[in-house]
Every structure is written in structure tokens, then in C-alpha cells.
Amino acid sequence: MRIVRTAAGLPRDGEIGLVPTMGAFHEGHLSLFRASRAENDLVVVSLFVNPAQFGPGEDLDRYPRDEDRDARLAEQEGVDILYVPEAGEIYPPGFQTWVEVEELGSILEGEHRPGHLRGVATVCLKLFNLVRPARAYFGQKDAQQAAVVKRMVDDLAVPVEIRVCPTVRDEDGLALSSRNAYLSAEEREQALQLPLALQAKDRPLLDGLEVDYFEEANFEPRVLAAAVRVGGTRLIDNVVLEGEDR
């Protein structure tokens, strides 16, 4: 595996599968690496903690970072290129162009984290243009993010196929997230209310937690999505409702 820090070092031959990430890899990321490995000649994983998708007072400064560990895990999964750009490569001096997916980007996460999905859409389009993948891989846990990227790709005729892979969960049912590392043992027990409430489709099971939303969303597939705060940690999750009666 090669670590590349500028787009000049990215491959230009063969079908490329891209997995955009912010690092702090866990089994959810690794499942995306494997999906990409199975379908492409080359696997490129981007590692960029995107400042544009963090709002004021959010956890940009303390977001988990361990490039050496991430590189070891990526290499073990057969990743060909770990692309680790500096912020100046993604947002050069004078940068002023943003991608706004108006309707999908204004609800749920868009309502509670203004600018977040604009940052996601913009960085993904930039990565697609730099890496030029045939396919890009996202996790179902971030259902709205995947929906926004799919809408952007369709609307702007971006030549990349978006693959969405199933949410990976710990044995206790909690969806894997880099932010789970913030949880104390007691907070983790409280966080288990989130997957339980979603599976039961029962919002009162979240009583005692600060709830940003617990709503159905037609993201193709339709999901029941929720965001809660456990202590100082904000967690999101969803369950797919496709095929169920409304």
C-alpha cells in the first residue's frame, strides 16, 4: 500500500473504487474496504477530517486521529492507496465554491447541523474529481449522507456509481462509529436505547436522552432515522423500512 498526499500521486489506470473517510477506522470502514476490493482493480481510501462538515462548537479539534493505526488496518484489508491530503489541497486559497443539495440537505441532519451536508457534498465531489473512481462506497448508518451524495451525482451527471453497504453493529447492537470512543461505560449503556428504539419503532424508548429527531425519511430506501445526544456525544442511526407498510 502507498500513502499519497497529493492528487499527483493518485493512480490513473484501471477501475478505481473509492472509500471516502475521516479516519479512526473501525469494522464499518473495513467492510467498505472489502466491498471495494471485491469490485475494483484498485482501492483508494481517502483519509481527510473535513473541517467544512463541522459546525461551531462541534468536535473538529478532538475528532479521533491516528494515521499510523489507520494505515496498518487499510494495508491489512488490501487497500492500494491511502490518500491523505492536506486541507490546502481540498480547499486551496480563495476557495469559494460549495455544493448545496437543497431539499435533502435541509432536513434532519441539515436542520440540526447547518452546513454539515453542504460540506459533505462539496468534499465528495472534490474527491470524485481528484480520484476519478468508477465506484464510491458509503455506509447505511449515514443514510442521509449517502442520499445527498447520490442526488448530487445524479443531478450533476458525475460518472461514479454510489454503493451503500449495510450498517455494521457491535454485539450489543450499537452502530459502529468513530465517536463511540467518546462514550464512558455508563454512557454506552444509555446509548443502547438508540438501536432499541429504532428496531421497536418506539420513540418513548429514548426517554431520558436528548433527541434531535426520530423521523421517517424517504431516502431510497426509506428509513426511520434518529439522532440523540448521550452526555457530550451525538450519535445517529437508522433502520431501513423498505417493503414495510406505511
What do these coordinates show?
With 246 residues, this protein is α/β, with parallel strands linked by helices. Strand 5 (135-139), helix 6 (143-155) and strand 6 form a beta-alpha-beta unit. The longest helix is centred in the middle third of the chain and has 16 residues, at 116-131. The mean pLDDT is 97. It is built from 8 helices and 9 strands. It starts with a strand and ends in a 6-residue tail after the last strand. The strands form 2 sheets. Strands 1-4-3-2-5-6 form a 6-stranded parallel beta sheet, with helices on both faces. Strands 7-8-9 form a 3-stranded antiparallel beta sheet. Helix 5 (116-131) crosses helix 6 (143-155). 30% of the residues lie in helices and 22% in strands.
What does the secondary structure layout of this molecule look like, with pairings?
Blueprint lengths: L1 E3 L11 E6 L5 H13 L2 E6 L19 H10 L4 E3 L3 H4 L18 H4 L3 H16 L3 E5 L3 H13 L5 E5 L19 H7 L1 H8 L9 E9 L3 E9 L2 E8 L6
Parallel strand pairs: 1-4, 2-3, 2-5, 3-4, 5-6
Antiparallel strand pairs: 7-8, 8-9
